[in-house]
Amino acid sequence: MLRSFGSVLRRDIVVTGKDLVAFLAQVLLQPVFFLFVFGKLLTSLGYTSSGYSDLLFPGLVALTATVTAIQAMAFPLVAEFSWTKEIEDRLLAPLPLWAVAAEKVVFATLRALVASAVMFPIGIGVLGSIPYRADGLGLLIGVLLLGSLVGACIGMTIGTFVPPTKINIAFALIFTPLLFTGATQYPWPSLAHLRWFQVLSAANPITYVSEGMRAALVPNIPHIPGWVCLLALAGSLALFGTLGMIGFRHRAID
Amino acid sequence: MEVRELVKRYPKAQTDAVDRLTFAVASGEIFGLLGPNGAGKSTTIGVLTTRVRPTAGQALIANVDVMVAPQTVRSLLGVVPQRNNLDRSLSVRQNLLFHAAYHGVPKAVRTRRAEELLEQFALTDRANEKPELFSGGQNQRMMIARTLMHDPSVLFLDEPTTGLDPAARLFVWDRIRELRASGVTIVLTTHDMDEAAALADRVGIVDSGRLLALDTPAALVRGLATGASLQVTVEPVGELGVAGLLDRLGTLAGVQRCEQIATEAAAQSIRLYLTGEAAAMVAPVAAAVAEVGGRLIGMKICEASLEDVFIDLTGRSLR
Description:
Chain A is mainly α. Chain A contains ten helices and no strands. Chain A is about 75% helix and about 0% strand. In chain A, helix 3 packs antiparallel against helix 5, helix 3 (about 50-80) packs antiparallel against helix 9 and helix 6 (about 135-160) runs parallel beside helix 10. In chain B, strands 6-7-8-3-9-10 form a six-stranded mixed beta sheet, with helices on both faces. In chain B, strands 2-1-4-5 form a four-stranded antiparallel beta sheet, covered by helices on one side. A four-stranded antiparallel beta sheet of chain B has the order 12-13-11-14, with helices on one face. By secondary structure, chain B is of the alpha/beta class. The interface of A and B includes residues 7, 85, 88 and 254 of A.
């Protein structure tokens, strides 16, 4: 079984490897512009304070990881189940169903980790310097890994529960709120005076990736404690992992 | 391969898609599964290929229960679906190689087998191309070659020649016969009755989820209440009109029933279903047409075929 699992994973890596530049451009264009306009441009024009980029960078790495994982999962899954039917060949392989789903999660997570890793040299390039703390490395890796896994499972949930004809509208309705309530551009504890938005942000798993990244990289900025972030992400993983698996089983077997 | 009292009811459906279906397919046999659209063929194949969960009953492949050990079953079977599900991101050769890798075929074996199958299915020239721009016939060849990569002992072919040109169809037929000769059990679903008659050792006809008949094509045709038929074309019909002509022909001894099957300009085509020898009816029919003032412009003897069996069992209504 391990050999089959490895072959299915190898297939995804081979296909992505052929298109590595396109893959990176697709996932990095948006965060790079965010970083440039909000982290660099507005600061140099004097509209934001110079510390803002330190706050923004960890949030954008978090956003890149999660969103890349969601996209790497949801779009191909919808296409493979409804239009191209490409997944059938893997569903008919002598692998348990959960292993086919798990491979998708592993692969989406790998993509997300690669994309978020590339954000670091890009951050240095755009901002000149980025916050870094060797002590925070363990937490950083833990948060990014969990965040990517959660993203992959959210992607699997969307990709299997939303009917294919409605996937475009679903993405528009899901993505924009996800993008702006994930504490990417602001630290969550500072929302105390805007209680409703703070509660809304607390419901978005990306918040815990952003806050966990800040706990790891810029602990002087008020943030949710790292262990709370890890716990919240583990809970999200259990929830969306279960939902995604139910959806996958539902699409794979009548 | 065996199906016992198989039942499948989809959620929210009023009736069973498969209703206590029971049949067995012998090892090395080509079994044709026929039925109108929505008859339950695809659901039955879905259960056998582990993609549909049955509501009740049992399905066995090589004595392995598909519900108990789906992974073992998947390693034994090959599936060629009706719809193209090739991996569009991979080349033809990679499609074959990865399929074998998913099935755990060792690298040396899969490399050798891929070259053999590419050659056998006339795909070597285009082995490094992606299948996006391939014709239906090339895709079909590729899908058959792909599934043979893991050397399945039971092969499911869902309408394998629909939409193919005659040469491609004959090519696929030849490969199917070769596979039977090498001991592979084949389950074939098709709407092409000639294909079923030409290839299948036995045929099962299903409708509304139930098995209506199961036998060799020849035995099914012999079992028809009507035997041969005569197709008669007249122009003009004569003074009594089509209805009058049908009445007259229907009363002839040896005619079981007759029906109008086509109208082209003033010409009418009528089909007579006979109880006996068709040749013996040619003269009496010609005389009867002349009697009502019609002019006979064509007559064709049609031996009964599997299609007649199919229509006789499942009716003419569209669904």
